[in-house]
Amino acid sequence: MDKLSSSLLARAATATTCPPDDPEDVRARQLYAFIPTVIIMTLSVATYLLRLYCRRITGQKFWWDDWLMGLGVFFSLEPAICELLLVSNGLGHHICNLSPDTAKRFAVVRSCPQKKKVLFQLIIGK
Q: Does the chain have fewer CB atoms within 10 Å around its N or its C terminus?
């Protein structure tokens, strides 16, 4: 090979290599996902529990709206749980810096909300 070809190959090789992760940047990205998720999850569960507590204190019966709200809280926890699983499986890191097993787990967890959406669309017929 001539000198020009070898320098082009070297430049192409360095262009495709993955930059190292900055630990502070990774931690900031993880906290950016983790903190709002935990806050929203905590607030939604707390408001539902407060509603149930107030119903019990005032002597009102649990009715269909309470059961539907509980079902809604249950289904709203799924994206939050997926987000927390993403943080523990490489969220914030560049994908090429993850091990193949971690990258595979990340892809599976990342696709959880989309699978639920497709299943829901199949059920309601849209």
A: C
